[in-house]
Design a protein that fits this description.
Number of helices: 16
Helix content: 25-40%
CATH superfamily of the largest domain: D-Amino Acid Oxidase, subunit A, domain 2
Strand content: 15-25%
Oligomer: single chain
CATH class of the largest domain: Alpha Beta
Structural class: alpha+beta
Radius of gyration: 25 Å
CATH topology of the largest domain: D-Amino Acid Oxidase, Chain A, domain 2
Shape: globular
Number of strands: 27
CATH architecture of the largest domain: 2-Layer Sandwich
Length: 589
């Protein structure tokens, strides 16, 4: 039987697994990603890539191509709630409400101040082939599709995995130091008996991917997602939703779309390739002349679960294998990229002998609370959608009463004015979905690979919209524009993959960092910000955000989270930095 040795085996060749493969390749770590399917996904599924994900992609040289293929900002500035897409009745094609989203509209200035990266929209069926291509280019032979992990066992030094090559009809084994479950929980987590906490089977989702020309009925090219509440239906999701999926046009002429339906678990309705076209026409008020080409129907259950633990010895879980939740705020795949960004540099240090295995414990310590918070958040947003139905006065199965409620909503009467005011309040709450800026970039680690400095946890917006940049250990490095040799550069651009970056305002830190790097055998770049430093503070933003005084320093990890800071110059800088790095890497003093 054929046998393969590799430091890291990744079970899963979707966005999460391919992302980890790329990050490890950039860090010089050999890995092998296995995918049981023969090809990447043929369904759009996840599509919105948020600011934090694009920061990760930018650090690893992926952002430009993702932006090139994805939705431009002008094509994803808001979501829109309507009564229907077509039709000519008095309640057809009526606007219920719009919400700015993803850094568009009134959000633009704030989002641009907080990051050099904007969000984009690139469906998974387009993103995965790109990631696969990049993974193969950076580490040839690192991905194997139509290869299935059948079973595995671990011991004190590694994991032995049993694989089936479905193309060749052969079995083989892989010996790895670590196994990463990035398979959506289908194989690795089940074999481990990983406990998933949280509710399951909340709703049944049916997403229909189709090609068709909807341009005659679209009047706003800036809308990424349309939601429809049908006056004659059973409430909000009876009308479904539409997401444009390109792949080359991202306006009303988008060549393909996803039609979304949400059903109760006990709903007997079955949607298939035959009746879905009729259902779309009925709910969206489209004529018989609309003849879409149905390409794929995907079905899945809405749940809000998170693994109680992410690490099981030499096996670790990431992405949907660790957390699965409603698509509110598009935090599923984006959180998965955050997982592997956190994990990759730690694996690299452990495998290269620069840190003990204990460093990998910090992956669970840091990412499991994030996954739990995201699942909780998405469930809040999922439940809030029903407030729109309630504010209008809709009830399941009450077609006549529901139509009367819509007529009142649009009437020029005191009751109509009150109904619209109530609806506006309910619509404002829906910002929890497309305006989750702080949820995307504001999360911080309370314990793990960091040195707490005793500072208080800053207040966070409970609605997840307003991000407050800080340099408190565990937080994401704040974005500020600096000038280096006359060229504007963001703080995140100064953090190289695999390298640590010390931001300071005195050149004396250079020799301190060199000594610490030599002792711990890690790369530390020093960025002196000041009139005579490496970079100049263009508009005073760094001075306002860095939260350090004269002689202070901030140490950013390779994943751009803050590992340690000294607000002022420590009495013994060399000792302080040396001890901090050893504490972060879990090295013996």
């Amino acid at each position: 039987m054929k046998h393969v040795d590799v430091p890291v085996l990744i079970c899963g060749g979707g966005g999460c697994g391919l992302g980890l493969s790329i990050l490890l390749a950039d860090l010089g770590v050999q890995s092998l990603a296995l995918e049981r399917h023969a090809q990447t996904t043929d369904h759009p599924r996840a599509h919105i890539l948020n600011t934090r994900t694009l920061e990760i992609f930018r650090q690893h040289g992926l952002a430009d191509e993702v932006y090139r293929q994805g939705t431009p900002t002008a094509g994803m500035e808001r979501i829109s709630f309507r009564t229907s897409l077509g039709g000519d009745g008095p309640l057809d094609r009526r606007l219920i409400g719009n919400l700015d989203g993803y850094g568009g509209g009134a959000l633009k200035a704030r989002y641009e101040a907080d990051s050099a990266c904007r969000a984009t929209n690139l469906p998974l069926m387009q993103l995965e082939p790109l990631l696969r291509q990049v993974a193969e280019a950076r580490a040839p032979g690192s991905t194997r599709f139509h290869h299935e992990l059948l079973s595995f066992e671990q011991d004190d030094t590694g994991v032995t995995s049993h694989i089936r090559d479905h193309d060749a009809g052969e079995a083989y084994t892989v010996r790895s130091r670590y196994l990463i479950g990035a398979d959506g929980g289908k194989t690795v987590g089940r074999a481990l008996g990983a406990q998933m906490a949280g509710p399951r089977h909340l709703r049944k989702m049916v997403n229909t991917y189709f090609a068709g020309d909807l341009s005659p009925w679209i009047d706003d090219d800036g809308v990424l997602i349309f939601y429809f509440i049908n006056p004659d239906g059973r409430g909000q999701w009876a009308g479904g939703g539409l997401v444009k999926t390109g792949p080359t046009r991202w306006d009303r002429h988008s060549e393909s779309w996803v039609f979304m339906r949400e059903l109760s678990p006990d709903d007997p309705e079955e949607i298939d390739e035959v009746n879905v076209v009729t259902r779309m026409r009925e709910l969206l008020r489209l004529p018989e002349s609309f003849k879409p080409e149905v390409r794929k129907i995907g079905r899945w259950d809405v749940q809000g679960v998170v693994a109680r633990q992410y690490r099981f010895g030499r096996v670790l879980l990431a992405g949907d294998a660790a957390h699965r939740h409603p698509p509110v705020s598009a935090l599923g795949l984006n959180t998965a990229f955050g997982d592997v960004h956190n994990l990759a540099w730690k694996l690299a240090l452990v495998l290269n002998g620069k840190a003990p295995d204990a460093l990998l414990d910090t992956y669970e310590a840091e990412r499991q609370p994030v996954g739990a918070r995201v699942a909780e958040w998405a469930l809040h947003g999922f439940r809030m959608r029903s407030l729109i139905d309630q504010s209008i006065g809709l009830a399941p199965g009450q077609a006549e009463a529901n139509r009367e409620a819509f007529e009142r909503l649009y009437s020029d009467t005191p009751g109509g004015a009150t109904a619209r005011a109530i609806l506006a309040e309910a619509m404002n709450i829906q910002r929890i979905g497309p305006q989750a800026h702080d949820m995307e970039i504001g999360y911080a680690y309370e314990r793990g690979a960091l040195v707490p400095d005793g500072s208080a946890l800053p207040a966070r917006d409970p609605m997840g919209g307003i991000y407050h940049p800080v340099t408190r250990p565990g937080s994401r490095l704040p974005h500020a524009v600096l000038s280096r040799d006359g060229v504007r550069v963001g703080t995140h651009d100064l953090v190289r993959p695999g390298a640590w970056t010390l931001f300071c305002n005195r050149a004396s830190w250079r020799s301190v960092a060199r000594a610490a790097a030599k002792k711990t055998d890690i790369e530390i770049d020093v960025v002196v910000v000041g009139a005579r430093g490496d970079c100049q503070d263009v508009d005073g933003t760094w001075a306002r955000l860095c939260e350090i005084g004269a002689g202070g320093a901030v140490l950013a990890r390779p994943d751009t989270h803050i590992a340690w800071r000294s607000v002022n110059s420590p009495a013994r800088p060399a000792q302080a930095l040396d001890e901090a790095i050893k504490a972060v890497l879990k090295l013996a003093s």
